[in-house]
Each structure stands twice: as C-alpha cells, then as structure tokens.
Amino acid sequence: MKLYLKLTSLAILLLTNLQITVANKLWPLPTWPQASPVEVKLDPDQLKKARDYALTGGGAGYIIRYGKLAMSWGELGQRYDLKSTTKSIGVTALGLAIADGKIDLSDKAVQHHPALAVPPESNRGTGWIEQITITHLARQTAGFDKSGGYTKLIFAPGVLQRRWP
Hints:
The protein is mainly alpha-helical. The protein contains five helices and two strands.
C-alpha cells in the first residue's frame, strides 16, 4: 500500500510538471518570444494600420502569430474596465453550461447564485430577486441599473425599460 501511494504521488507530481511545461510552451509568460512581422508572414504596414486603429480607442494589445510576438502597444500591465467585451466570454460559458445540462435558460438565477443582487441591501425589498431568470440576465432585462458594479434593481425582471440620453 505504501508503494502504491508513493507511485501515485510520483505520477501526480510528474503529470503536474508535464502540464506546467506544456502550458508554458503554449503561453510563455511573462514574455513572448519576438519576431519581426515579416518573419511570421505578416505585412508590417497593415500591422501598423491595425495598431494605429486600435490606439484610437486607447488600451493595449498584442499581435501573436506562430507563438511569437510580432507587435505590441500600450501599457500592457494596465488593468482596463472591459464592460461589453466580457459578453463574448459570458455567452460562451452560458452556451457550454446549457450544452452540458448544468443550467437552463428558464432557471431562476438565485438557484445558481444565492447571493444575486445583494449588495445593495435595498434590492431585497423589491421582491424581484427571486423572479430573475437566466434568460433575464442573458437578455439584460433582469432590472438592474446599467451603471456597472453592484447596482440597484430599478424595474421588475422582464420589463424592458430604456433610458434614452
């Protein structure tokens, strides 16, 4: 039994090291190997145009091809408020969860996230939290104020209210 435990521990250690080694080859943090755009078969002038266009919105970016950094710009260590760009990640995760049978669009959101909508504490008094479904969250009709962060419920779930500027 002791030999089995030792062999199991050794196997886990080896697999963990192998996973780290493979991950490092695929994602070479903290730096990427660099190459000129031409070395990775990219047009330098088109890359500059893409970079300049990206910079009109601010921020930072990398262009990686064949595992090599061909161009970067901006303050790469800076944290940014991504807002709507997170929707692509969220919809992918939701689709996978639905496909795996882990969630249904008709599920009440509190079934999966019991602390939904609190803070602020004032949301408890609305009576709306328990009505919010995954569909409401996906369609952005759950009733939350759109200012970001932990926000107040300002209308009943499913009631589409638009606030025009």
